[in-house]
Specification:
By secondary structure, the chain is mostly helical.
Length: 142
C-alpha cells in the first residue's frame, strides 16, 4: 500500500504542476492519500516500516493542495468568462429590441447608429473580457 501511495503521490504531484491540466492530478492524489493512510495502519499493526506510506501521504497531500488550487482558479476564470459572454449577449438583445423602436420613432439611420453603438460597446466589452481572461491565465501559469 505504501508503494502504491508513493507512486500515485509522485505522479499526481508532477501532473498537478502542469498549467490548466493540473486539476486532473486530483484523480491520482486523492486515492494516494487513502492508500497511504491504509498503508500506515497496516504497517502499525504488523510493526513494519512506515517510510514509504508516510512519503506517499505527504506527496499526495501536497499534490492534492496544488491540484485543488488550480481547479479553483480555473473554475473562477470560467465563471468570469461566462458572465462576460452573458453581458455581451444582453447588449446585443438590447440593441435588437431598440432597433424597431428607433425605426418607428425616427429614421432608419438612427436605428442603425444605435445598433452600431451597441455592437461597438459589445466589442469593447469583449476585448476587456479577453484581456481579463489573458491576465487570469497568466496568473494561473505562475
Amino acid at each position: 500500500m505504501g508503494v502504491a501511495s508513493l507512486v500515485l503521490g509522485i505522479v499526481g504531484l508532477v501532473i498537478s504542476f502542469i498549467p490548466c491540466l493540473g486539476m486532473y492530478g486530483l484523480f491520482l492524489t486523492v486515492p494516494g492519500v487513502v492508500l497511504g493512510f491504509v498503508g500506515l495502519i497496516m504497517a502499525a499493526k504488523k510493526n513494519a516500516p512506515k517510510g514509504l506510506a508516510i512519503a506517499g501521504v505527504v506527496c499526495s497531500i501536497i499534490g492534492t493542495i496544488i491540484a485543488g488550487w488550480q481547479y479553483k482558479k480555473l473554475s473562477e476564470a470560467s465563471d468570469s468568462l461566462t458572465q462576460m459572454a452573458n453581458e455581451i449577449s444582453a447588449e446585443f438583445k438590447k440593441a435588437a429590441e431598440n432597433a424597431p423602436k428607433a425605426e418607428k420613432d425616427a429614421s432608419l439611420d438612427k436605428a442603425l447608429n444605435d445598433a452600431k453603438k451597441a455592437v461597438d460597446k459589445a466589442v469593447e466589452d469583449g476585448k476587456k473580457a479577453a484581456d481579463e481572461a489573458a491576465k487570469k491565465v497568466k496568473e494561473l501559469a505562475k
